[in-house]
Amino acid sequence: MPPDETRTISGILASARIIALAMVIAFCYWASTVVLTLLIAVLMAYFLDPVVTGLEKIHIPRALGALCVVLVTLALIAALGWLMVDRMDQFGRDWPQYRAPVRSALQAVQKKMEILEQRVSEIEPQAHNAPKILTVAESHPIRNALLGKLNSLYTFLFAATFVPFLLFFMLAAKRQVMDATMQLFPPDERERATAALADVTRVLRGYVVGTALVALMLVGVSWLFFWSLGLDFPFLTALVSGLCNLIPYIGAILSWVPPFLVGLKRFHTPAPFVGIFAVLTFVHIITANLLIPALIGWRVRLNALALTISLLFWGWLWGALGLLLAIPITAVLKVICDNVERWRPVGRWLSA
Fold first, then answer.
1. In which domain, by residue range, is 80 found?
2. Which end of the chain, N or C, is surrounded by fewer C-beta atoms within 10 Å?
3. Which letter does DSSP use for residue 233 in this model?
4. pLDDT (tens digit per residue) in 262-272
């Protein structure tokens, strides 16, 4: 084949790959509700599958064991949700007591800003005397807020409706699904596909179990710390703060917000807030440098640059859930790259 034709075909193939990748990203964005529902169900299935397998070993049929595990999981989630709703309702009733310190802090910041604006206007008086052009845009804040709430409610109800059914079918029909999946590959590639799926299972299960252990440790330590400080709603505050602390890099900052907000009612001096800041930052450092590498890091084997890029991309694509799912998604992509010969350089780069 002439060199010109080779270059043309290579360019066409590269363009086709870029278009295909753009279509996949667009599908993940526009069908985010469906994709996120599937991903949540898959992660929960990997987490609960050992329990169903253990029940099967004691001669409980797999379908019955899967049903029992799903029902118990739903009951625990419902109990935790009820506890959170009850605590949030109490927080809402006590909100006037929190609003006063927040309002005074905002007023102090506003006064500082006004003083700064006056000093700037004294330095540049021409800017103060310049004509101002005001543009008033038509806005419907109430309608926009209602539409936003309805969209979030629809997404939650969609996931809450389908995840239990998906979870049950994935657990009950695990072997049938695996056999049907193997039939999608040519006979000479099924052995390699089986090994790749085994690696994916190991990575996802290790990530989910390790993350659950780290989350329990963070919530437990935060709960004891907030209880010792005498904060209101120590368990709810510790649950939100501990889960936020799991997020790499920005988790430390997010974990400060719940105790700072709850502490406005009790504390009126900077010292307790400085203590909360110091303790939670220390906990985040220990988690990021000791717990996560020991319980999670060796399973996913992602370098810091790949991890940061994945957090930026999936967080941009799916928001908060994207930040939580970025690590397992990227870890699975690395396993796939390691088992496809053409993509192995990408897999090595992700773990370099």
1. 46-95+156-175
2. N
3. S
4. 887 788 788 88
